[in-house]
Specification:
The complex is a heterodimer of chains A (266) and B (263).
Chain A: E1 18-27, E2 30-40, E3 45-50, H1 56-63, E4 73-75, E5 80-83, H2 95-99, H3 108-118, H4 134-146, E6 152-156, H5 164-181, E7 184-189, H6 192-198, E8 201-206, E9 209-215, H7 224-237, H8 244-254
Helix pairs in contact in A: 3-4, 4-5, 6-7
Chain B: H1 2-15, H2 20-34, H3 46-59, H4 61-93, H5 95-109, H6 117-124, H7 128-152, H8 156-164, H9 169-203, H10 212-221, H11 225-253, H12 258-261
Helix pairs in contact in B: 3-11, 4-5, 4-7, 4-9, 4-10, 6-7, 7-9, 8-9, 9-11, 10-11
Classes of the chains: A alpha/beta (266), B mainly alpha (263).
Chain lengths: 266, 263
């Protein structure tokens, strides 16, 4: 019905924007990523779940081009952008200059302004970053990523530091921006419900390998029922065995997130 | 009735201000001088000091000598700050630079600059050169130490964030590292300025024929405590002015900091 589980990364027919083949990375004797295969299709929304220390950050750094990948079969697009958990705005540059960071050519301010308008912060264009709230800073970070029209947008737990209400608004915003710009998205998250609500495909990374892969074909906003089943399975993959009692109470906590608000559909 | 309580409160608040104790001190000082409790050769009265100040301003004696001192400090600072900033950039931005420069600077830091005065006299004689050299030498360190640690202290996450947007190494230095180190540079600048004035006082004791130090030395020989106090006031004003200058630069350059951004 909703998802087929297979343990090898599926290779779509279209040319992928990201392709890692048998990718490994180790620090000293410590192997962080071990023979990983991953491919992401253009415009695909992938969520990456995993326990702390499971290699999520290392994989994200590789895809962001922050670590060298000498001698490995790694394909990443040149146009990519990252939104970090902490917005990482430069406090000494006004909001629009942060958005325009590294952009060249004429009309840079106009482009930054357009991107800020898209995230609903056009009025803060000349503000100093340190005067923004956490949610606003994260929206600026989104604008800064999108102004580059990236083929690959990497989201590194971008909502983890936000309060629940802001988080829900940000989910809606990310989906909206994704629909307009259609980048491939890889979102690293701890939050199973967030992954279920947003992604086309969910990967579970553990000990440097992809241990589970779930495709979700049900439209966003209608995932309440399938989400519950999926959630339990994903938690199982994450080594978090839930009894039905725990499960029910956990669902209550997550209930505000799983059925996606505003009935958004892909 | 309420009017008079208001008046009382006003008077009360007037006398609880911070200016009260200095004024009382000045009045006691003046009174002590006039009553002969404080001999003129020990310390001139405030009124005498003000009179001398006006006189020295009118004759041009003070401005002329102040200008000489100012040039010494300015020359020393330009040299010292240039060297300090250059070394800090080299040590902060490259590993080789750090290995080559920082150990020497840390060793040099342990030598009190003023202890080098005899050596500088042997090397540079007793003209302008040793004075400027001492000020330059002393002002290298504060600016070096602060800028160097400021560069090293720039948030790695910001650097990575900028790199993830494809900024080159030069662009990262220009957009992230240097602005990030600017607050530390200004702290260093403030220390360098106050150190330079401190060194000026001592350096001008070396056979000066003009400058504030020369005025003080001359006044000492003639037991003119009024002139000495005038010069002390000028030193204080110089320190205040230097501090104010850096504050002004900070307000302009660090407008992004929250306490200033909200003000």
């Amino acid at each position: 019905m909703l998802a087929e589980t297979n343990f090898t990364a599926a290779f779509p027919v279209v040319e992928p924007v990201v392709r890692l083949r048998d990718f490994s990375r180790s620090f000293g004797a410590n192997t962080v990523i071990d023979g990983l295969n991953l491919s992401i299709a253009p415009g695909e929304f992938v969520a990456l779940l995993g326990r702390s220390g499971g290699g999520k950050t290392t994989l994200l750094r590789t895809l962001a081009g922050l670590d060298s990948v000498q001698g490995q079969d790694v394909l990443i697009p040149s146009s990519r952008a990252v939104v970090f958990q902490d917005a990482r705005l430069l406090p000494w540059k006004k909001v629009w200059r942060n958005v325009a960071l590294g952009l060249k050519g004429p009309g840079v301010r106009e482009r930054a302004e357009a991107a800020l308008n898209e995230v609903g912060l056009g009025h803060r264009i000349d503000a100093w970053p340190l005067t923004l709230s956490g949610g606003e800073a994260q929206r600026v970070a989104l604008a800064r990523a999108l102004v580059r029209e990236p083929k690959l947008l990497l989201l590194d737990e971008p909502f983890a530091a936000l309060d629940a209400l802001t988080r829900i608004k940000m989910h809606a915003l990310v989906l909206e921006l994704w629909r307009v710009h259609r980048p491939a998205i890889l979102m690293v998250t701890h939050d199973v419900d967030e992954a279920v609500a947003l992604a086309d495909r969910i990967l579970v990374l553990d000990a440097g390998r992809i241990v589970a892969e779930e495709h979700i074909t049900v439209q966003r906003g209608e995932r309440g029922d399938v989400g519950r089943v999926l959630r339990q399975r994903l938690l199982g993959h994450l080594g978090c065995e839930v009894t039905s009692e725990h499960f029910l109470s956990a669902v209550d906590v997550g209930a505000s997130i799983v059925p996606f608000p505003q009935g958004a559909s892909a | 009735m309420p009017k008079s309580t208001q008046l009382h409160r006003r008077i009360a608040s007037l006398f609880s201000g911070h200016w009260v104790s200095p004024v009382v001190f000045l009045i006691l000082w003046e009174a002590g001088s006039r009553l002969g409790l404080i001999p003129k050769s020990t310390l001139a009265a405030p009124s005498a000091v003000i009179g001398t100040l006006v006189e020295m301003l009118a004759t041009g004696e003070l401005p002329d000598n102040l200008f000489v001192s100012f040039l010494r400090v300015a020359a020393g600072l330009v040299i010292g700050l240039s060297i300090g900033i250059t070394l800090a950039l080299a040590a902060g931005l490259s590993r080789q630079g750090e290995a080559a420069i920082d150990p020497i600077m840390q060793i040099k830091r342990t030598i009190p600059t003023l202890a080098l005065t005899p050596l500088f006299i042997v090397w540079f004689g007793i003209g302008e050169t040793p004075k400027v050299a001492l000020i330059a030498f002393a002002s290298i360190f504060p600016v070096y130490l602060n800028l160097y640690s400021g560069i090293r202290g720039v948030d790695v996450r910001l650097i990575e964030g900028a790199r993830s947007f494809g900024l080159s190494k030069t662009e990262v230095i220009w957009h992230v590292i240097l602005p990030g180190a600017l607050p530390s540079l200004l702290v260093g600048l403030r220390y360098s300025l106050s150190v330079s004035i401190l060194v000026l006082v001592v350096a001008e004791q070396i056979n000066a024929s003009a400058g504030l130090g020369y005025l003080v030395n001359n006044a000492r020989d003639f037991m003119r405590t009024d002139i000495i106090v005038v010069c002390l006031l000028v030193y204080a004003a110089l320190g205040l002015g230097a501090d104010g200058l850096v504050r002004l630069i900070e307000r302009r350059a660090l407008a992004w900091r929250p306490n200033l951004a909200e003000a």
